[in-house]
Backbone:
């Protein structure tokens, strides 16, 4: 049985080589984590400091949780990345954006929200992590 | 399954606005969570973009990892400092089934 699994493993490795390269980059553990704490752990965040220098633009109430537009701007010097989490979604981590070569620490995207929850943002700047959050009231589950 | 090239499924705009360039991208993708059931009560397999990379004149400016919580037909805005008219912005995505798409556009006056 073990040998068979090993052979199957080799087989899929051959076919899905490009995907495996992608899988090495994609943070599976963080994206499959259910709780905020487990996401943080898998993003190697050990301590987060609240910061009002993280601006979150999102509606106070969302009719349809399938499409909630959220904008994030970090005014923290040397911001390297912005992660978006939704506490009450089936899996909390939505996205992690890494900026380089003149990209501003600014992003607008549309996310799914299962129910009324905080949108939590985690900013990495050097070896420090900062956080802010905004509550959004969701009237219709958007996580299908 | 394997690498599938998809054409014309990304709409992009890169406009110079004062001292930065604003890039807006609309991608065509189902972004299935793997938790949704179809009309027959069967779970629809997860199918979602995992990685989005943007470059300015070939240099990486943005690298995003996504989960299933990004909405269907993903929308993205980002801003670049130091980009000029005519510079080339390219965006590429890869999904969990090995499909990929790429699109590039020149910076225009906003």
Residues:
């Amino acid at each position: 049985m073990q040998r068979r699994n090993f052979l199957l493993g080799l087989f899929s490795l051959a076919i899905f080589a490009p995907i495996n390269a992608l899988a090495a980059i994609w943070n599976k553990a963080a994206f499959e984590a259910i709780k905020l704490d487990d996401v943080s752990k898998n993003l190697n965040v050990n301590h987060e400091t609240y910061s009002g220098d993280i601006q979150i633009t999102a509606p106070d109430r969302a009719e349809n949780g399938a499409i909630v537009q959220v904008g994030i701007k970090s005014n923290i010097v040397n911001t390297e990345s912005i992660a978006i989490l939704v506490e009450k979604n089936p899996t909390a981590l939505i996205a992690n954006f890494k900026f380089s070569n003149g990209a501003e620490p600014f992003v607008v995207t549309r996310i799914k929200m299962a129910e009324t929850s905080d949108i939590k943002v985690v900013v990495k700047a050097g070896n420090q992590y900062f956080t802010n959050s905004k509550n959004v009231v969701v009237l219709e589950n958007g996580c299908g | 399954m394997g690498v599938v090239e998809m054409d014309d499924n990304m709409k992009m705009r890169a406009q110079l606005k004062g001292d930065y360039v604003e890039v807006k991208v609309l991608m065509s993708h189902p972004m299935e969570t793997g938790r949704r059931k179809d009309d027959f009560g069967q779970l629809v397999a997860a199918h979602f973009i995992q990685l989005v990379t943007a470059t300015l004149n070939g240099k990486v400016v943005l690298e995003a990892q996504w989960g299933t919580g990004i909405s269907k037909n993903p929308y993205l805005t980002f801003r670049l400092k130091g980009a000029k008219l005519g510079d080339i912005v390219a965006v590429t995505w890869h999904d969990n089934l090995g499909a990929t798409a790429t699109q590039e556009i020149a910076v225009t006056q906003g």
Chain B has a mean pLDDT of 92. The CA atoms of residues 59 and 74 of chain B lie 23 Å apart. The beta strands of chain B are 10-17, 20-27, 49-56, 59-66, 75-81, 88-95, 100-106, 108-109. The radius of gyration of chain B is 16 Å.
